[in-house]
Amino acid sequence: MLKILPKNQVWFRAGLLFKPRWIHVFFFSLLLNSTLSYGQSVTITGNIVDASGDPIPGVNVIEAGTTNGTVTDLDGDFSFDVSSADVSITVSFIGFSSQTIPLNGRTNVSIVLEEDTRSLDEVVVVGYGTQRKSDLTGAISSIKTEEIVRLPVANVTQSLQGRVSGVQVTSASGRPGEGTTIRIRGVGTLNNANPLFVVDGMLLDDIDFINPNDVESMEVLKDASATAIYGSRGANGVVIVTTKQGSFEGKTTFSVDAYSGIQDVPDRISLVNARQFAELANELEQNVGNEPLYNPSEFGVGTDWQDVIFRTAPINSVNLAASGGTTNTSFNISMNYFNQQGVIRESEFERLTLRFNNQYRASEAIKFGHNFSLIYSNSQNEPGGVVANAYRAFPIFTPQNPDGSFTNTSPVGNPAAQFEFNANNDNNAYRAVGNFFVDVDFLEHFTFRSSYGVDLGFNDSRVFTPVFFVSPQQQVIENSISRVNSQTRNWLWENTVNYSNQWDKHRLDVLAGFTSQEFVFEQLEGGRRNLPGEDPALWYLNAGELTTQTNANFARDWSMASYLFRVNYVFNDKYLFTGTVRRDGSSRFGRENRYGTFPSLAAGWRIIEEGFLRDQNVLSDLKLRASWGIIGNDKIGEYEGRPVVTGNTNAVFGVNESLIYGAAITRLANPFIQWEETVQSGIGIELGMFEDKLRAEVDYYYRRTNDILVGVPIPAYVGASNFPVVNAASVENKGFDITLDWRDRVGEVSYNFGIVASTVNNRVLDLGEGNEAIFAGAVGVGGLLGSRTIVGESIGHFFGYQTAGIFQNQAQIEASPTRGPEVPGDLIFVDTNGDGVVNTNDRVILGSPIPSLIFGFNLGFEVKGFDMRADFNGTYGNKIYNAKKQVRFNTYNFETSFLDRWTGEGTSNTEPRITNGGHNYEVSDRFIEDGSFLRLRNVQVGYSFPRGMLSRFKVNNFRVYLSGTNVFTLTKFTGYTPEIGGGNVLGTGFDSAIYPLARTFNLGISANF
Fold first, then answer.
1. What pLDDT is recorded for position 826?
2. Whose CA is closest to 474, among 397, 569, 562, 381?
3. Which of 524, 764, 895, 1005 qualifies as a FRET site for 357, CA 20 to 30 Å off?
4. In a domain, 401, yes or no
5. pTM to 2 decimal places
6. Is 228 exposed, middle or buried (0-12, 13-18, 19+ CB in 10 A)?
């Protein structure tokens, strides 16, 4: 990974920090030129810049084979005399790869220096500090700001998709502002499997609020060595976000980044038209002994209700930033406005973000500052169930009658009417996130850091429903108003001492610290009906009738205290060692098991530094590393270790039958529950070849989580509303993470190609006594459950009947095992256990929503100001449950797959006869589809105007670009998107008519001056 240092750091490596650069340029030029004399000479000129187009002053430019040369000035320009226009010149500068360039008769040249990653080692962010990448013993992946800002999305986590090995990112839905589901190296718990997020040192549960333009880098910590410093918070992996900072004595620069685009739904579900619907509906009635309802010849194409709810929608973003500093102050401030209207009508998300990152020097030893964001967002969601209604509504209906009234589309609601009467919802969110810190250097090698962070949030939601009548099933006879206010208060205080020293062949870094954190959430709800009118000025609770009032108020909190210690030791740049231990105490557990201790060890061997590899020119890097560690997890309910008393459990007692108000323990607790523990080990190799043009990393990991907290069934007569939680289950994940990257330059063309791939093998090892299986994923009629978790298989796999075609006649039914009562045209369920009957014992595993392979690849090039980049991502081996097709409480519209139904012997062996329920709608592989896909996630083409042209306008760079996101998806899945996210690990992968993922095309600009 190339990394361009800020100019002040480049000069530091050249030994010129804090000294007037022009003096060095002058004297160095004078020294060189004073030794030269020529007979016949040619004057050559040129300009030298880095990969970002910034000029590099102080570069040595020498005629090859001589001492004749010069250095570049502050603008990267040079001019000197050489003996001939056919000689070669050699350019060199500390931190960059030297180049020898034949002039071939040219007298003016432009040169781009590439950073030398061997001499200028990349620095990556780790927990509570930074490390040289060459010193890392843990599995850490990093992406930089240029990769992050290319995607026009509200949620910065989407930039990780297909870019980091071992990480699966799925969008919960395509709703504007919606979050993502992130899984790092599989699913290691039956509870909350989300990773920890760390933003400039502040520990958070989400980063939905972050403006992508503010991010300098994102690091993903994947193994125990990397995550152990966060203890229990890092059991599911850690995502560290570092925002942009200013620089002391840095020149003030301003930047503008903006784009505007349009969105649409790239793939729609194939539904039958009006004539086909009439035919199928008639056939359905005949199959149950009724008369046909329609004359199909009276209908044509009819209404595709997807056209009614979907739209082409705009998306816009504007970002303004300023960065710089003085001798004792540095700053980076930014403002971003993001607005995304949804591809479903009446859905929208807008966000305004202000960020203030400042640092101050009180003295040479004391520095303090803050990283703070203020966020306001407003969201409006589409009416509930409108996607499902558009999927099910009859195409023979029109949205409105000739008189303008809405059509009765029973048995489902009219989607067009939903937008009219159920779209008055509005949610305003206010959030302040950041920290204040002070760094004190003392005793030469010690640094003390104290940081106090806060995450304060307030949400205000209001929903108004007017009086309306569309049909008996779609009406409201009393208007209503409901309000929900919630607040979160999260504070984190961390104090660390760091010792860092280097001597002879030794490099030592020691960290010790204490942290404490508290999280409080409270919600207040209220509602009333029968407001005197529908004017928004009356949308307040007091405007409704007092007798219709409802209210609720609840809160929850938890806290944690931790001690941490880490040592990093490097000997002779060859042998690396990391040891970490963290002790966490969580209020979620009882006093007996409140604290847990979590250690990790890791070692590395930089083989490339050994003598036997010095005299070769193929390998540029070779490192072997291994790690082991134990990490805890407490992501369960706040009060699982304490019994909960519920009020309003009233009863009538006594001769007079008096109502007695009471309370009772309705939620049982287990005070002896303790930490889940994840034991993780791994081995990895890092490889560089051909002067680091090729970089590769391969890791094998094994993750086993023990003592998983899970509810154990108890008899119903106990009267508890829950199963008490115990430490019972165990889960393992294992697989490979692979990263390959090739970067090179041919002439004026620089290009790159990269691949990331991860395998995941997930298996449950134990569920505890009383839990032979855990069922989840309610689908179909009667609350059927489509997923199961058992020992020996993956978490949340699909479970039901295996089919073997369609019964063609009665004789075939009589000769086969049946579930009963089948008729010709029904599905054949396989008698898997061979006992001659088909019952629930014949259900089998139908696939898993967990992919066996997660992959992504990217390619790009730059030439003469033009650049292009394309990113692909996908999965293989996962299944999706088409729940929307299975759920039929009544006659609904049909997917076109129903056209292949059985209508008589020999007509079909894949799609059964038309029915609305019963046998053919049991949980079976009829509704299981292949979820594998390949998607062009993003493609972008840009042009950067020449710096010479821009300099007259005092602009450093100006770039315009066109981009497309989610351009196309190759998949066999018949729904809107094969990305089916969700936080419930026991019941994921169910498509119940989710909000589609939008395709986006943008035009944007990026400039700084």
1. 97
2. 397
3. 1005
4. no
5. 0.85
6. buried
